[in-house]
Every structure is written in C-alpha cells, then in structure tokens.
Amino acid sequence: MTSVLIYTTRWCPFCQRALQLLDSKGVSYTNVDVDDDPSQRQIMIERAGRRTVPQIFIGDTHVGGCDDLYALEREGRLDAMLNMDAKQ
C-alpha cells in the first residue's frame, strides 16, 4: 500500500471527514497535526502550496483537501492510488 500523509488540525471538520474516509478503507496514514507545530505547518504550506487543512499526500502525489479526496473516491480512482506500485 502506498504511504499516505495528511496534515490536519484537531478542530477541522473537513479533516475529520477525510480521516473517516481513510479509516473506512483501512488505510494506514501519518497524521501531522499542525496546531501545535508551526514548523510542520510551514512544511505543509511549502509542499502543498496551500494554507488550509487538510492537505493530503498519497505517495509523492499531492491529492489536495477533503473534497479532492472524496472526488477521487467517487471517480473510483482512490483505491488505485492507494495500491499503486511504489515504482510508478
């Protein structure tokens, strides 16, 4: 399974929705809470080019936020991304 990294805050409902979708799929992910760590927030902004949370990365691919994650699910593309061969 491809690695998943998600930048979140504790109070964000969109973060919770994104985490719920990943949990429902049994996906292991690294959750980086940017509330308490300004350096991680800065890394997120530099990597994603966005200031809002959540910001989701599957492997090296920046997926975007919660709506983008759910769009991939609706389009049937999320499972393929999560199971991508690491060499691709």
Structure description:
The chain has 88 residues and is an alpha+beta fold. It has helices at residues 13-24, 38-48, 66-74, 78-82; strands at residues 4-8, 30-33, 55-58, 61-64. Helix 1 packs parallel to helix 3. The longest helix has 12 residues, at 13-24.
SSE map:
Elements: E1 4-8, H1 13-24, E2 30-33, H2 38-48, E3 55-58, E4 61-64, H3 66-74, H4 78-82
Parallel strand pairs: 1-2
Antiparallel strand pairs: 1-3, 3-4
Helix pairs in contact: 1-3
Organism: Isoalcanivorax beigongshangi
Protein name: Glutaredoxin
Pfam family, one: Glutaredoxin
Q: What's a quick, concise take on this entry?
A:
The protein is an alpha+beta fold. It has helices at 13-24, 38-48, 66-74, 78-82, and strands spanning 4-8, 30-33, 55-58, 61-64.
Helical fraction: 40-55%
Distance between the ends = 12 Å
Order of helical and strand elements: EHEHEEHH
Main sheet attributes: strand count, strand direction, barrel closure:
4 strands, mixed
Strand order of the largest sheet: 2-1-3-4
Shape: globular
For this entry, give a set of tags.
88 residues, alpha+beta, 4-stranded mixed β-sheet, globular
